[in-house]
Amino acid sequence: MRPTFSGIEIGRSGLVVSQKGLDVTSHNIANVDTKGYTRQRIVQTAIEPYNSIRKFRPVDKGLVGQGTTVMILDQIRSEFLDSQFRVNNSVLGYWDTRTQGLRYMQTLFESVDGGSLENSMGITIQDCVADLFSSFIVGETEANAAEERLLIQQSAISLAESFNLTYQRLQAQMADQDAAVKVLVEKINILSEGISELNRSIYSYEILGEPALDLRDKRNVMLDELSALAEIEYSGNGVGEQFTLTLGGNVLVSHVTTTKLLVAQDKSNVVPGEPNVYNIYYDADGDGVVNPGNDVLFTDSIPTGELKAHLDLRDGDSATNKGIAYYMEEINTFTRALVQEINKQHRKGYSHPLSGSSNNKIAFWGMYDSNGNVIDVDETDPTELSKLTAGNLRLSNAITNDVYNIAFSDKEIITDPALYDPNIKTFSGNNENMRKLYQLRNIGDITLITGQYIGSLPGYLAGTMLDFSVTLNHSANLADIHDVQTHDVDNLRLSISSVSLDDEMVNMIKYQHAYEGASRMITAMDEALDILINRTGLVGRS
Asked: pTM here?
């Protein structure tokens, strides 16, 4: 004969499992909007019959199971899609951050009254250059007039101020990118420490074999955030395993131990003359202080991600890595070419006697020295010319102080008839030197004294603008592509792991009916036992 209370125990197991299913369903519904929450489910299994205990075997020798039990509480999540998302998220973080930085540079190059991408960089600088060259020919017939000279002076001052302002803004943006490096390194350290603490809790919970599902969700959220900052690799994600996280080949988290990244301002070769910027070190000795002899220089080892984008924007100074430093140097190169050619030609002309005397060899452009004083630029000295930047460009003191020092004439202007020589001297002066200065815009074979080929001045500036536009468009296109790819992978993994209210409503009804069925089964077995215990043997009694 079968065990008397076996049926009640089977029904009880159904009640317990159905109640567990309702609890899990309730937990899922409550967290439908929780960031990073993964849908949970119970995994049921049948309890095997007691076939090894012969005296409890049913009389008909048919082996009946003993009900059901929850084998494990599980998550519906794809580790493969998690990995794919984090790889794509790192690449997206890089191109999105880089595009934002380049677009901000675009706004720096635009004029105060607005401008479009096609006018970027030129609306301020190119127009000022055009205005300067145009001013060189306004005095075609009035070489002695102060108005034409004043126009040249003010056009040159406006150009210098425009270059100065653009350079200062680029310096400020470089400082912003440098500050962002420090902030992101600190954020990486905070996330690493958070993951380490979660590892401790997860491992303690899972030591008996049960997965710590909600704790794992929190760790996955941190891994997603960290993947946007830099490309990461990890292992040991199984139940009861020790988790390891690496970045750029160096271990940041080893189970419950964290190694930090450190920053120190000790790199000064991004742009000559600019202040030191943050370098990143891997704290190999674990003392929390940068020791170049012990700690690993990590700046150039950062893989793709937001941090890498900030580093490239700050440090990029080559044709293969075009950042702020690269375009600052492009503007500097144009400035040097402009100053070299104008100064060289201007020195060949003669000032007006109203300046005191008619002299040649007067510099048109000057620059600020290290003490903040304006000095003439010696365009014949490669070392001195290399010190000139768009940031320290200035109109020479001679022309700033007196517009009659502008060398209109290609001949010395005299006032004494006894000194007249029609070949080399003139009474009234001319504007031939101004014409030659204007013609500089059409020269197409300019080479800096340092050896760098420029071509034409307008062509070099237009090429720089075109190069910037291509760089920005390339970055924006890649950001868009990876944004689509990342969101596609994210949507795919969310379709698996996120809570669906429709599915949960179905589960709720399913477990509710199962609970009711198990309850009715227990009632039926109770009635059968009542007959067996209380009414068996009473037939025929009076």
From this structure: 0.85
